[in-house]
């Protein structure tokens, strides 16, 4: 991802998931790569799948960012509320809330 070779990353992450579809980190990373390509609907699909298995703050904030980039403020707010229950002190969550308070 750091080399901005998103398509290649997506290819290899899919290969990894063919071997073991329970790799939540790979599912999360796959979603991030789709989001980097602005394919937010696909990214959200993978993030929701990952979040069903692992209710982590990282996956939740990734979902929030996808919803914000898509312009779906209602879903973004729903997931902000969920994220606050997981870890109200998370730095990324605080940055998102700060950004939204300045721009809304």
TrEMBL record:
Annotated coiled-coil segments of the chain: none
Keywords: TPR repeat
Keyword Zinc attributed: no
UniProt protein name: TPR domain-containing protein
Keyword rRNA-binding applies: no
TPR repeat extents: 24-57
Highest taxon above the source species: Bacteria
Organism: Clostridium botulinum CFSAN001627
Pfam families documented for this protein: TPR_8 (PF13181)
Classification via Gene3D superfamilies: Tetratricopeptide repeat domain (1.25.40.10)
């Amino acid at each position: 991802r750091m080399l901005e070779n998103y398509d290649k990353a997506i290819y290899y992450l899919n290969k990894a998931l063919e071997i073991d579809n329970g790799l939540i980190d790979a599912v999360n990373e796959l979603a991030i790569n789709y989001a980097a390509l602005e394919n937010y609907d696909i990214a959200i699909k993978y993030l929701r799948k990952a979040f069903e298995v692992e209710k982590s703050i990282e996956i939740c904030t990734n979902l929030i960012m996808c919803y914000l980039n898509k312009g779906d403020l209602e879903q973004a707010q729903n997931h902000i509320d969920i994220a606050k229950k997981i870890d109200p002190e998370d730095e990324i969550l605080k940055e998102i809330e700060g950004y939204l308070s300045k721009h809304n």
